[in-house]
Design a protein that fits this description.
The protein is an alpha+beta fold. The chain contains 26 helices and 22 strands. A 5-stranded mixed sheet has the order 2-1-5-15-16, covered by helices on one side. It is found in: Cell membrane.
């Protein structure tokens, strides 16, 4: 007993000692953990996002090109990522994501304590513990994971800290939206918006439950669960997501079974710069944006990056009208191309017509030197002889055809000649009152033919130049569409108007009509009439007016310009004709409405440019002249259904338009270029058709003239526009100025005596 009494105090002392030691160790450990978290939050273990970073995370967003009707028609990106608001996400996708990835998302504050303890006690074998907020933190601020355990622990702690900060900074809905915007779904699709377009060709709001389940399944591992490479695995993962939705009571068991029975149905469409809608316009815009970013800086003085700053470029292009224009070009060009190939079968130097072997060799050599093959071999220090020899060796390649791409074997030299066979086209449509460009088609296929025939390529305009001569004559000489002039042989002698040799223009049909009105002269595109008018006003006056109309080309002050021996772009021609439709006021074509940053703030808004060129009366007189072209002249087939020579190549014929149309066809020497300029009161459209090389052409006017080569595109395009009531393309008359001072109603029918009355009636009609 005595011994026990003696040992008791020591025993108590030992217990107290261990208690103190335990609490000391516990306190030090707790302080160490707190210090560790504190040091991590201060960035001692690697940089941490600041308050500003959390407010504006570097989300590497694609710049979106948006049409006037609100459709994203293209993007500029290195990473194809688009930003969505929570309201843009379909509820079924949000439900599937929460049910599968973070069932207690709405309960925790960034870290799921229960899930963390479960993962710790099971050593990760019973599922991970990362919340959606932690996954977002990892995606935004340190994507890579270290294989070294201490580093991995540091990264996990940093994730926790960032997750807590994100929860304080954003609402749950904002966190969900951010997470859906940053995940990489593969195939260049980052974010739900891009993934929905890439895999299903639809907007996120239109995703069905099973499609949402597929995308949510990909959140687990987009490389493993890629629908293109692993459809079986994707189906199994989708079914797991559907099961989680049943468990969370978001769908019923019956719904789950219904969706499980459905196959994986994709509408895969890889978004690229070379495909999709308005490819030529998007490239033109990209070029413009390169200059824009050099002149417009961010508030902090740094440069905008169109590939990752998430700008929104609002354009004037109407996506519906653009699709109609692309369809019209495609349908007519594939039709006309058949005829071109038929003609070239008997041409030993196809597609070139009436040129020497030396000129042919020059064109082919120039094409070789402009090719990618030449550039690559030149960089490899190959000799010119070796490079030329390589163009004569057969190789496998993929070529463009109007029936789709085709794999074949041919020499690169033969492929150059093959591609030179293709007829090209350029189309631009614009609202004359605003200058807003509504459609832009720069060629037949951007992937294979990058040259833009709207804004980049100027070609001879032929008779479409004549209205500028007539407008000058009406303004300078006070003439009217009803004034008469003699169609007969005419010559401008050497020395007059700086001509270096006698110039005697001839009519395309080699005949003369005698006395005709100006309206008849333009309707029938009579060359002698245009020549006589430019002789009277002088070519300098015509050049001056043409430049006022917005044509930027340098034009020689020579009488021959009256017949269209001038190179002008489709864009400038549309702007010039638009001046007539806009009562004599030139409005510079514009393709931008505004540019916003990723926060939706307007950072640029263009100021429209316009100036007066002609008074209303003269502009209207020119419109009446141009209406004569579609009533009785070279554009009359827009109103007929009788057909004629080559009518099987008038795509979309008969057109049977009955509304007011002002227009002008144009055909250059040897049928190298075919044009049609067509106008209704609120839409001016220019169309050009021709081959890349002017020596590649139709042999006759039947198919090479503007009325056959270009006019059908306009007719087809307008039929589609009129069938689309949402576009509101006008069928009204052109606005007639009040107190019109120029006579435009030219002829009166003979007076017929009414036997039942003494009064005689006069009916006026226009030619």
């Amino acid at each position: 007993m005595a011994t026990k009494k003696i040992n008791q105090p020591n025993s108590n002392k030992d217990i107290n000692y261990y208690k103190k030691k335990f609490w000391r160790v516990f306190a030090y450990t707790l302080l160490g953990i707190l210090a560790f978290f504190l040091f991590a939050s201060w960035g001692l273990f690697g940089s941490m996002p600041s308050f500003e970073d959390l407010e504006n995370p570097d989300s590497n967003l694609a710049t979106e090109i948006i049409s006037s009707d609100g459709v994203v028609i293209g993007k500029y990106f290195k990473t194809n990522r688009s930003q969505l608001k929570y309201s843009d996400l379909p509820k079924n996708l949000v439900d599937a994501l929460v049910a599968t990835e973070d069932a207690r998302f709405y309960e925790h504050s960034g870290i799921d304590g229960r899930g963390t303890l479960r993962a710790a006690f099971s050593l990760g074998t019973n599922g991970g513990a990362s919340t959606l907020t932690q996954q977002l933190a990892k995606q935004l601020f340190h994507r890579g994971g270290s294989s070294f355990l201490p580093f991995r622990i540091v990264q996990k702690i940093k994730e926790w800290i960032i997750a807590i900060r994100l929860e304080r900074q954003y609402t749950k809905n904002e966190i969900l939206a951010m997470y859906c915007n940053v995940y990489d779904f593969g195939n260049y699709a980052v974010g739900v918006s891009s993934a929905a377009q890439t895999y299903f060709s639809k907007d996120p709001k239109d995703l069905t439950i099973d499609e949402s389940a597929i995308l949510v399944g990909m959140f687990n591992n987009s490389s493993l669960y890629n629908p293109l490479r692993n459809p079986t695995g994707v189906k199994n993962r989708r079914d797991v997501v559907l099961g989680q939705m049943v468990k969370a009571k978001m769908i019923t068991e019956a719904q789950k079974e219904k969706y499980k029975a459905m196959p994986i149905a994709l509408k895969f469409k890889l978004e690229s710069h070379r495909e999709g809608t308005a490819t030529y316009f998007r490239e033109y815009l990209r070029d413009y944006m390169k200059k824009w970013v050099a002149e417009n800086k961010k508030p902090d003085g740094s440069d905008y990056d169109i590939y990752k700053d998430g700008l929104k470029i609002y354009t004037t292009i109407d996506s519906r009208m653009q699709l109609h224009a692309e369809e019209a070009v495609s349908e007519h060009m594939k039709n006309l191309q058949q005829q071109f190939f038929i003609e070239q079968k008997t041409n030993k130097n196809a597609p070139f017509v009436n040129i020497s072997q030396a000129e042919t060799d020059r064109l082919m050599m120039q094409a070789m030197k402009n090719s990618t093959r030449w550039a690559i071999m030149k960089d490899l220090d190959k000799s010119e002889d070796d490079i030329i020899a390589s163009f004569k060796v057969k190789t496998k390649m993929r070529v463009f055809t109007w029936k789709g791409e085709r794999d074949t074997v041919m020499t690169p030299l033969d492929s150059i000649r093959y591609f030179k066979h293709f007829l090209q086209s350029g189309l631009m449509a614009m609202e004359p009152q605003t200058g807003n460009i509504k459609a832009w088609v720069g060629g037949i296929n951007y992937k294979y033919f990058q040259y833009d025939h709207v804004g980049q390529g100027a070609r001879q305009v032929g008779s479409t130049f004549k209205p500028f001569v007539y407008a000058t004559a009406i303004e300078q000489l006070n003439m009217s569409p009803c004034d008469s002039i003699l169609d007969g042989p005419f010559m401008i002698h050497k020395g007059r108007h700086n001509v270096t040799a006698d110039w005697e223009p001839r009519n395309s049909d080699n005949r003369y009509r005698g006395m005709v009105t100006l309206k008849q002269g333009l309707a029938n595109s009579i060359n002698t009439i245009s020549a006589k008018l430019i002789d009277r006003v002088g070519p300098e006056a015509v050049v001056e007016l043409t430049h006022k109309l917005g044509v930027k080309t340098e034009i020689p002050a020579q009488p021959s310009i009256a017949l269209g021996a001038v190179d002008i772009t489709v864009e400038d021609m549309v702007a010039a004709y638009g001046t007539f439709a806009n009562q004599g006021v030139y409005v510079k074509p514009q393709f931008l409405s505004r540019i916003e940053n990723k926060s939706g703030e307007v950072i640029y808004e263009p100021i429209p440019e316009s100036h007066d060129v002609l008074n209303k009366d003269i502009a209207f007189a020119v419109i009446k002249l141009l209406q004569g072209v579609t009533e009785t002249g070279s554009g009359a087939r827009l109103r007929t259904q009788g057909g004629g020579s080559g009518d099987n190549r008038w795509t979309g014929y008969p057109y049977m338009f009955k509304n007011a149309i002002a227009g002008k066809t144009g055909t250059t020497q040897n049928q190298s270029d075919g044009w049609f300029m067509g106008m209704v009161p609120n839409l001016v459209t220019g169309v050009w058709v021709g081959c890349e090389d002017r020596s590649a052409r139709f042999k006759s006017l039947t198919y090479g003239q503007g009325a056959t080569a270009a006019l059908p595109i306009w007719g087809y395009f307008m039929k589609l526009c009129y069938a689309d009531p949402g576009l509101q393309v006008s069928k009204s008359e052109f606005e007639r100025p009040a107190n019109l001072s120029i006579k435009v109603d030219c002829y009166s029918a003979p007076k017929v005596k009414d036997t039942t009355a003494t009064e005689q009636n006069t009916d006026e009609f226009e030619l």
